[in-house]
Design goal:
Layout (H helix, E strand, L loop, with lengths): L1 H25 L5 E4 L11 H13 L3 E3 L8 H10 L6 E4 L2 H6 L7 H6 L10 H5 L2 E2 L2 E2 L2 E13 H6 L4 H4 L4 H11 L8 E3 L5 H9 L18 H15 L9 H7 L6 H6 L3 E7 L3 H7 L4 E5 L6 E9 L6 H11 L3 H10 L13 H10 L6 H5 L6 E2 L8 H7 L6 E2 L5 E2 L4 H9 L9 H17 L7
Parallel strand pairs: 1-2, 1-3, 7-8, 10-11
Antiparallel strand pairs: 3-10, 4-5, 6-8, 6-9, 6-10, 12-13
Helix pairs in contact: 10-11, 16-17, 19-21
């Protein structure tokens, strides 16, 4: 009886302790709420979570992570929170158009101007320009990667093509190398992975006023000679069978038995040039046993892909939100903290052009030759449009052209999407010149329609 009484008392005490703990948790006063997609799990405890905890300790604050967001339906989750008037104070943006259209984002121009450290000025210029709309700044560049071509140095040297490294990297030298390396198909060797990014970056390599896909900050120029030439150059690669993607199934089976895609061919050391992103470097180091060099794109205007973070327009402590966002992205001390905590090569690059910080980063993560050289010239880079140009998904892919086209296999497509039409142009099945002006008008109309949804709300 006494034993049962003791057990009962113990149960009551345990329940009371648990209740007190839960009560304490429920009474935690959070300084900010934060939503993002890159935190993994508490058990994994990745660098992002470590950075949050470090910020809390340094500033004596608490950050509540909004764990209700779906990684597969992120935007829908943010919208659902906004409807409930629970929009996080700070949150990752899937793209600028989303934040502006829904009027979720705060103009942080005043916060940037009040930042006497001038650290904002050390963010690479192209990615800073991408977060402006009219006279305001509506996001903070959070992370970035560079896109361009990686070279299998060992394979180039093995085939006595050292002339490529000894001369300026131009489109002509690029084409010559791809063409010459493709002559080794019978040895299971290929020149280039795929060709269908050429027409997106090429115009900017010959016209300094253009960015990705001819975007100049206010309109596209898809009827210009630069883009028309880019389509032709892409088609030349395709029709010449100079890329792995351009080969037929029979050709792949004949020359590349056992290879499952161009990544597999690259990993085996049989691909001379591969288009890729700096976030793939950790996997390359792990899977490749040859010397790799990043060379960007001809002309040196390296494409950049960014991630962005926003302060919500419902945030009550905007100064703290800015300080936290800065710590997670471009704060020099935050960057140093990241460098110190990373155990291996990172899949993102430091958000700064500060030469000291760049040196510190690459001293620790000197993984692929050429990355630092390209990084130091990012002020001349171009930002890929997907996340930063309103309506880009329509302007590049989804807008209906009104054209009825027939493919080489006899399929008839009524009112073809723009992306499909462009694909048939660079594969040689349609003539781009015939509809270049109409394509340009259509792409620019999509941008105009996109900003009409929200431009009246911004100065």
């Amino acid at each position: 009886m006494k034993k049962q009484l003791c057990l009962a008392v113990a149960a009551v005490v345990a329940a009371a302790s648990m209740s007190a703990a839960l009560s304490a948790c429920s009474k935690t006063k959070y300084s900010l709420t934060y939503a993002t997609w890159n935190l993994s799990t508490e058990a994994v405890n990745n660098v992002e979570r470590q950075m949050i905890r470090e910020f809390e300790e340094r500033n004596n604050v608490k950050i509540r992570i909004e764990d209700s967001v779906s990684l597969t339906a992120y935007d829908d989750s943010i919208t659902a929170l906004a409807v409930k008037n629970k929009l996080p104070d700070v949150f990752m943006l899937s793209n600028m158009n989303y934040g502006l259209k829904n009027r979720y984002v705060s103009d942080i121009t005043d916060l940037v101007n009040a930042d006497t450290s001038k650290d904002w000025d050390k963010i690479p210029k192209p990615i800073v320009e991408a977060v402006h709309f009219k006279n305001g700044i509506y996001a903070i560049p959070f992370a970035m990667n560079m896109m361009g071509y990686f070279v299998n140095v060992d394979l180039i040297e093995e085939k006595n093509k050292n002339w490529f490294f000894e001369n300026e990297f131009t489109y002509d030298s690029f084409y010559r190398l791809v063409n010459e390396m493709a002559s080794y198909k019978s040895e299971g060797i290929m020149g280039l992975s795929h060709e269908n990014t050429i027409f997106e970056w090429y115009p900017a390599s010959v016209n300094p006023d253009y960015g990705w896909f001819t975007w100049d900050g206010s309109e596209y120029h898809l009827d210009g000679t630069e883009f028309i030439d880019a389509i032709e150059k892409t088609k030349q690669m395709r029709m010449g069978g100079l890329t792995y993607d351009s080969l037929s199934e029979d050709e792949r089976a004949n020359w590349f038995e056992g290879v499952d895609g161009y990544v597999s061919l690259w990993n085996s050391g049989k691909l001379a040039l591969r288009w890729g992103s700096s976030y793939e470097v950790p996997d390359m180091i792990k899977n490749c046993d040859f010397d790799i060099r990043f060379i960007g794109v001809p002309g040196g205007r390296t494409p950049i892909v960014g991630d962005y973070i926003a302060i919500s327009n419902t945030c009550k402590d905007r100064e703290l939100a800015y300080k936290f966002s800065k710590w997670m992205s471009f704060d020099p001390e935050g960057i140093r903290e990241r460098i110190s905590r990373e155990k291996q090569v990172t899949n993102t690059l430091p958000m700064t052009v500060d030469p000291v910080l760049i040196s510190e980063y690459f001293e620790k993560f000197d993984a692929v030759d050429g990355l630092q050289t390209a990084f130091e010239k990012l002020d001349n880079g171009i930002v890929e449009c997907v996340k930063v140009v309103p309506g880009y998904n329509l302007s590049r892919w989804k807008a209906l052209t009104g054209l009825t086209i027939t493919t080489s296999d006899g399929e008839t497509i009524a009112d073809a999407e723009l992306g499909k039409y462009l694909d048939l142009c660079w594969t040689g099945e349609q003539s781009y010149m015939e509809h270049a002006q109409d394509v340009n008008k259509l792409a620019n109309a999509q941008y105009g329609n996109a900003i009409k949804q929200f431009e009246q709300y911004y100065n």
